Amino acid sequence: MEDSVKKIALLGMGTVGSGVYEIIERQKVNMPDKIGCVLDIAKVLVRNKKKYENTVPAEKLTDQWSDIINDDSIDIVVEVMGGLEPARTYIKEALEKGKHVVTANKDLMATHGHELLDEAKIHGCDLLFEAAVAGGIPIIRPLKQCLVGNDISEVMGIINGTTNFILTKMTEEGMEFADALQLATDLGYAEADPTADIEGYDAGRKLAILASIAFHTPVTFDDVYTEGISKVTAKDIRYAHELGCEIKLLGIAKNTEDGIEVKVHPTMIPIDHPLASVKDSFNAVFVHGDAVGDTMFYGRGAGSLPTGSAVVGDIMDIARNMRFQCTGRIGCSCYKRIPIKEMKNTRSSYYIRMKLEDRAGTLAVLAGLFGSNNVSISKLLQKTKEGDMAEVVIVTHNVEERQFMDSITVIAAMSMVQEISSVIRVYSAE
Questions:
Q1: Mean pLDDT of the chain
Q2: The whole model's pTM is what?
Q3: What gap in Å lies between CA 221 and CA 110, rounded to an integer?
Q4: What are the catalytic residues?
Q5: What is the residue range of 220's domain?
Q6: Which residue range or ranges hold the ACT domain (predicted)?
Q7: Is residue 93 part of a domain?
Q8: Which of 114, 190, 364, 370 could form a disulfide with 375 if both were Cys (CB 3.0 to 4.6 A apart)?
Q9: What is the pLDDT of residue 1?
Q10: How far apart are CA 7 and CA 401, in angstroms?
């Protein structure tokens, strides 16, 4: 056993940074036995040193990046500031100086991850980012290492805890979206501006990272179709239950014969699927590999200590690599260039809720219009009647998105249709 010290610079002391600091301090006595060295947080970069003077020793606090990048004794830089800049610049400069990097920054890795991983390879450095997806749930390392013997055909999951909490409240307590969002805000699950969560952007960034690793092909956030949950209603959730489904915001990545599908949207998923039972702010990632079959990773997707746990795991991995002089051994795995499919060329089945004139022949006309665009109806249910209008629920068989949307455009313009109230995709393993 060695007793050397690996010095760390922590960039940021917010929710995740404070969790990292607490875990390392808590684990310090066990570090020599666990990894053969001691981890010492030597510098903490913050904007306001006075704010943290009761938490971090004054000599460790700095508000100058130069104090870190010019300190040759710093071995590992841990970026938990968030945002694209200056995080990208700091990480690039650290790698150029031969410092290893851990980041929890999903925005950065989904946009510039391939560039930064190339930089790490050039300088023989580790750049690890387990905490960028699903908080404390191990998923990056399993995809890169434990499941590398598989050809993975699908990765999908609940990778945003805020939206899952909202949908859980809508499901279990019959809340409408606005009320469930307000509760999530009051309890601290949702930010003051919840757009990134409720519109699917947060999940989209995480899915880009997962798809890149699973399918060995560069996938960026711009490649991901995103649709949020703000149009989902308690009524849709009730009807989903009648159809044997739950509604979840899913990130779905598939490697198909004609390209990669990457999309985030509300999805009706069979109630017996393992993801259907994931509730509240928990996350889960479901992976299908040709050798392993189906696996699921479940746990806390955010929070100070869960996310800090993933960051510290990466730090300890780098410390081990440094001990045995094998840093840079697992870098970017994107050795393929599989095309990314446009959303219009993907396939799904669809749930449609609409209000129609309640008169003879209306449903036949509707079925005919769907059929003329090669959209086959699986189920058609009349739910309620108000005056001369009827509410109808339709579920289609699997169909190409382009064909379905062409049908909806025509149907929405028809005089017999008062409104198309809701369109939600229905998950199919096809």
A1: 95
A2: 0.94
A3: 6
A4: 206
A5: 151-298
A6: 351-430
A7: yes
A8: 370
A9: 43
A10: 52
